[in-house]
Amino acid sequence: MRGGGIPRHYRCPVAVPGSDDPRITAFGLLLEAFSAVERAVAVDLARTSHVPTPEWEVLIRLSRSPGQRLRLTELANQVRLSTSGLSRLVDRVEQAGLVRREACPSDRRGAFAVLTEQGEAALGAALPAHLESLERNVVTPLGADDLATLEDLLRRLRDGTGARS
Hints:
three-stranded antiparallel sheet, single chain, mainly alpha, Arc Repressor Mutant, subunit A, 3 strands
């Protein structure tokens, strides 16, 4: 290397053929947008609530489920955690009194996570500020009409991968 420049073997004067494919661009933008929105909403949630983001996700998933309960394996899939990672998270949320575990009557090894009254109250207290954050970080940049389109597109993507939860 002469003159303090970039070593020859690191130089790439031409983009790798195919790396500018619109599928790569779209996927990269999806990841960037998700990360940016998730970060902004998590900061807002931490500022306005005593419920950290992972716990919040458990509470909101349970609140939207029939009987406010989910099998732990189903909940793990929905919050993108391994079953052992979810078990540790549910331990923390259960110790805080926000959920309880219930045995599954049809499978002795299975268990449900169930939202408690205290969990419902914590969720209810944090929900208005969370909705304001979603309005600011998702709806405002898109517009209300595009929010419905985004929801439809995301469902199609999720369901097309077989990851429906």
